[in-house]
Amino acid sequence: MIRWPRGLTAMMLMLASGAVVAIEPPPQPRPQKMVARAATGWRLAPFTLADQHGDPPGQVCSHDQLAGRWTLLLLADSRCDTTCQSALQALVALKQRIARADVARSTQVWMLALDPPADGGEHLRAAMAPYPADFKACTGTPQMLARVLDDLELGGRHVSGNLSGNVSGHMLLIGPDASVRAEYLPPFDPLALTAAYLKRRNGR
Question: Which DSSP state fits 156?
């Protein structure tokens, strides 16, 4: 006597009775919400910010380090709430998915910390500890951060006195010519974000 698995037996009985069996396709990632910014052609002005390791020589995030690379820039602060953590996890997944491709060598991830009073080196190191060592967290004086936000065309969106206000959790793609190419909005699906990133690199 052949013993069929319970699930298969139930399906065979339903088919024999003429019942319609609906087979659902596997879930597909939702398209990543994106604001195209390539048309502006706006290039960032020179800047120098400290990273999570402090500000000795070589421990900075600077305009020069954007040249020749594609930078995924997450706006957040050292408290890194659920949206921030979800975004960083999506970026980890993105880097893993492209790890064996040539594009991996020219892809970098930065987090721009927008709460200067709290975002000292110790706070930033703690926030970035769970993530890959090549992920950078950058911050600076309120004046320098406000200037960078204005250059990113986000200056009008933050709340007075709170730079992270309405833009924390947003992600920007900066091209190898230091111009903003796209803005990605939360929530972040790793597969959709990876696809959107690769399409934008290819000019789509």
Answer: G
